[in-house]
Amino acid sequence: MIKITNLQKYYRTEEVETVALNNLTIHVKEGEFVAVMGPSGCGKSTLLNIVGLLDDLDEGSYLFNNIEVAKFNERKRSDLRKHNIGFVFQSFNLIDELTVFENVELPLVYTNVPAAERKRRVEEVLEKVQIMHRRNHFPQQLSGGQQQRVAVARAVVNTPKLILADEPTGNLDSNNGNEVMHLLTELNEAGTTIVMVTHSEHDARFADRVIRMLDGQVIMETTTF
Amino acid sequence: MNNKIKTTLRYLWRNKLFTALNMIGLSIGISACWLVFSIVHYELSFDKKIPDIEHVHQIVSRQEFEGKKSSFAGVPLGMAPLLADESLDDALIVPIYNQNFERLSIPQDHEEEPLTLDEQEGIVGTRADYFQLLPYEWVAGNAETAFFQPNNLVLTEERARQYFPKNSSTELLGKVIVADTTQFVVSGVVRKLSFPSSFNAQVFMSIPDKEWHNQNWSGMNSNHTLYVKTKNQASLKRLLSMVIQRYQETAAKEHEKLGAKINFTSSPLKDKHFEKQFDTEGSSINKKVLYGLVMIGGFLLILACINYVNLSTSQMPQRAKEIGVRKTLGASPLYLTANFLVETLFTVLLALLLSWPIVELFRRIYPEFIPSGMEQFNNNWIVVLFLFILVLLVSLLGGLYPSYLINKVRSIDTLKGKIETKIKGTRFSLLKALIVFQFVIAQFFVVGALIIGQQLDFTLQKDLGFAHDAIVTIRMPYKSYQNADVDPFLYKQALSKYPEIANIALGHEPQNNSHWGDIYYFAADTGQVQLHAPRKYVDKDFVDLYHIELLAGRNIQQTDTMREVLINESTLKPLGISSPEQAVGHILTQDDNKNFSIVGVFKDFHQKSLHVKIEPLILGSSNKSGQLQTFHIKLPNDRNLWTKTFALMEKEWKIFYPNAPFEYKFADEKIKTLYGTEHRTAKLIDLATGVTIFISCLGLFGLATLTAFQRTKEIGIRKVLGASVSGIVAMLSKDFVKLVFVAIIIASPIAWWAMNKWLEDFAYRIDIEWWIFALAGFLAVVVALLTVSWQAVRAAVANPVDSLRDE
Question: Which of A81, A89, A91 sits opposite B330 (nearest CB)?
């Protein structure tokens, strides 16, 4: 599904150029659950952003479902993204002005799904993450675990082929964290590909494969069973 | 769409403070545009609905006298009959002659008392052509029969209702109106013109014979105007050349002897409303004033839009996360732009709601700035259309830049908790420049308001050279039916017997423009001197009542004809006399060999407003009411006695002048009216000061918010390292005060220069002192600090743990 080859990514300021990702090659197969680990600043979030088409790459090739997307412009990337990729963030990134229902509904609005269909799908996914009873609440009225469940619901409502999770349990206690990990596992078992950045060895154990990075390079890949 | 509206309202509600600030700021700009549009639209629509207006011309004269050129709308009486006799088929000749009657007496039905009305305005003599020129709608009668009989008269519906309150307009044909001694018969009723117009007469009659057959070409008077309508340029030329030729044959030589050259020409009616020199009704307006208004409206609107942009931009970092999430989830740039524009549109609509009461309030508080006839011709649809366009325009102007910034936000930065530094960085200097600019204007107005206020206090408090406290004046009746022929000294005598009346005198008011003007000759040591000096008629108690100080000689004695005069100090110099004492006993001579002996010299007092220097003045005695004009009554020092005194005055008044109203005015109030324009200016400047300070504060508030946000981390670190709250507030405020200081430095010389110009109109004026600028600066700094401190304190007391954890 994802074939990244010889990826180079630089960050430039006025005086210095820093290499964020150096000659990186990663392949992810459809239906796989991959965890990316490594110390702060090793480039794992940058990688995730590139995989999620939020950031562009300086050199190298990125095939998404066998389509070369490295040179896509913003509009094309946005198009590809909203139909294929769901995001879960450490800080949830729910919109404060919208209710739980409206937050989850948002990706469907942007993909022009009709209102009745939206309602059905949002309610279905809210049931699935067991937050239906809170559908009319605002994010601040929820606990961290509940917020992350809403975020997961929002990520999957469009039935994306790929979910990218950036430290999804980073802001949660272990109970809530486990709940979210089980959710992700369920999704994976249902066929969704997941790439997750994490610091937690415990969370990484839920993945099929762990990629370890240091200074913008992959230093080790292990398979967990 | 529904979802968008809901979230927009939710967002606006959540940010109540900013929404309110945005609303108020925008409503000021919208209100200004609303008012300006109403006024400008009204002024521009003048006369526009007169059919074929491009073919209508007013005959006017261009004059040259002692090298000065001027234009005048009055025409000699001989002109209209000359042109009418020519009876060109393709030209309408419309003379309009104002008619004045002391009293209309209007018999009513059913033996009721006749209605009497004094000094009715809006009565004109004209020809039937008038009704072909202007599109009147006839309620009764018609244009052809309107002036069938010489004593026929046409009323507007409004006047018809006033004159015959019990009858409907259609019943009025044949009704009688007696104007002074002439009887008129109503031959028609018309609706008032349905559009703003220079033609505002309400009663129309034939031109009286004595005016129509008058062949005078030498005198011109603004009561007599003439219009010609013709599609044929040649006809107009021909008529004009006839006029010029006849004038050359008659009055031209006489005028040339006096040094005046006069030429007649035509002026297009469509420009009339903007030609002050041809305005005989006082309704014209200078186009520059309209341009000025449009500029002020546009200026305030732009300031309001810029403020909106500033405040929205200052909110941008807080919104960056939301925008980033939306982008990540696939919102297109178009969608985000539309979203923000809808939000702006909502704010603008709320501002529009708010500007309704603001506009109404302005109309109530400042009626003098609204053209008097505007309310009658309110065209609501045009205003609504304008406001609709204005709302769209403001939404675009205010919303586009923030939308652009929104689209510039890179989602990955915001999601990582980083704030788009570009937003802050590039806009910062622009924002600062704008704040300085706003404060320069505010500072300018503050200084202006202070100085104008001071000068106006000065005009009221300055020693004018005569006492004006507790003095009331009453105009002597001057109409025949008001017993104008009663000797005014009888009323004076009647009042003098009451101990409550401290003093009573007759004569011109000491400080106004009414006086007789004359040329006097004086035999000085160096030969004969010619003296131009105004003369005020007074009686012997005048000098005493007004505490006018005599420097030499004695007061005048009451005589039947003027024999003795008093002169002021300023008269000495042109006469070549060095001291007051020397002047006493000298003789002033007039053209007709009348001699007046100077019996005394009085200390200069201000006989006109403080705009002009004190000039020579002569006080002479008279006993004629036509010359004395006014009663001056000094009230007792004890204010408790005033009510009783007024009652006595009125009681006696009713005895001598039963048909004249008893109306008195305080001398103090009359002095104030000399500075009407200045008081109006002051009112407007005060308003401008308030508005500009407010707008400046909005801008400053936006900047403060942005700064507080931008420096959150710095503040956190400083606090961790031990900085106090007050220290941080001071640090944050210092930068803003610096901006205000820059504004003060720029504004002060400009304000000083402009106010000096303004004060130059006064011969007697205050000095502009340094402390005015200091005070204005101090005020600006205080206002700025109050504005900034809220955000500064909020930033300073914030828990550093929160701000540092973000990173």
Answer: A81
User: Amino acid identity of A175?
Assistant: N
Amino acid at residue number B344? T
Which among A55, A82, A95 has the least Cβ separation from residue B325?
A95
Query: Measured between CB atoms, does B321 come within 8 Å of chain A?
Result: yes
Alpha-carbon radius of gyration of chain B: 35
In order of start, what are the domains of chain A with their CATH numbers? 2-223 (3.40.50.300)
B313 vs B499: CA distance, rounded Å: 75
List, as one string, the DSSP characters of B680-713: HHHHHHHHHHHHHHHHHHHHHHHHHHHHHHHTHH
**Spatial distance between the Cα atoms of A121 and A119, rounded to a whole number of angstroms:** 6
Return the residue in B329, B334, B422 with the most chain A beta carbons within 10 A, the one to mutate for interface testing: B329
Q: What's the gap between Cα B555 and its chain centre?
A: 42
Closest-CA distance, A51 to chain B, in angstroms, reads 12
Closest-approach residue (CA) in chain A for B411? A54
Alpha helix locations (H) across B204-332? Answer: 209-212, 233-249, 252-257, 287-328
pLDDT at B427: 55
B539 within 8 A of B559, measured Cβ to Cβ? no
Minimum distance, in Å, between the CA of residue B409 and any CA atom of chain A: 12
Q: Under DSSP, is residue B549 helix (H, G, I), strand (E, B) or coil?
A: coil
Q: What angle do CA B258, B260, B264 make, to 5 degrees?
A: 140
Give the burial class of A15: count Cβ atoms within 10 A of its Cβ; 0-12 exposed, 13-18 middle, 19 or more buried.
exposed
Q: Which of B35, B698, B46, B699 is nearest to B390 (CA)?
A: B35
Task: Tell me which residues of chain B, numbers 389 to 428, contact chain A at a CB-CB cutoff of 8 Å.
Answer: 411-412, 415-417
ipTM greater than cut 0.95: no
pLDDT in tens, B92-143: 999 999 999 988 999 988 778 889 888 889 999 999 999 999 999 999 999 8
Q: Residue A58: how many CA atoms within 13 Å on its side-chain side?
A: 14
Give CA–CA dist B324/A174, Å, rounded: 28
Cβ separation of B11 and A98 shorter than 8 Å? no
For residue B15, what is the nearest residue in chain A, using CA coordinates?
Answer: A97
Burial of B254 (0-12, 13-18, 19+ CB in 10 A): exposed
Question: Where does B501-641 have alpha helices with state H?
Answer: 542-545, 569-575, 580-583, 625-628
Bridge-partner residues for A159, per DSSP? none
Residues of B in Cβ contact (< 8 Å) with A52 = 328
- For the record, the structure tokens of B127 come out as 């020809």
Sign, Cα dihedral of B236, B239, B245, B250: negative
Q: B242 and B86 in contact (C-beta within 8 Å)?
A: yes
Residue with tokens 């309602």: A119
d(CA A64, CA B274): 73
Q: B332 and A110: CB-CB below 8 Å?
A: yes
Quick: pLDDT tens for B157-184.
999 999 999 888 888 999 999 998 899 9
How far apart CA B145 and CA B142 sit, in angstroms, is 6
The distance of B794 to chain A (nearest Cα, Å) reads 22
Q: CA nearest B388: which of B341, B357, B349? A: B349
Q: How many angstroms separate the CA of residue B13 from the nearest CA in chain A?
A: 10
Of the candidates B10, B327, B329, the beta carbon closest to that of A97 is on B10
- Assign A193 a pLDDT band (cuts: 50, 70, 90): very high
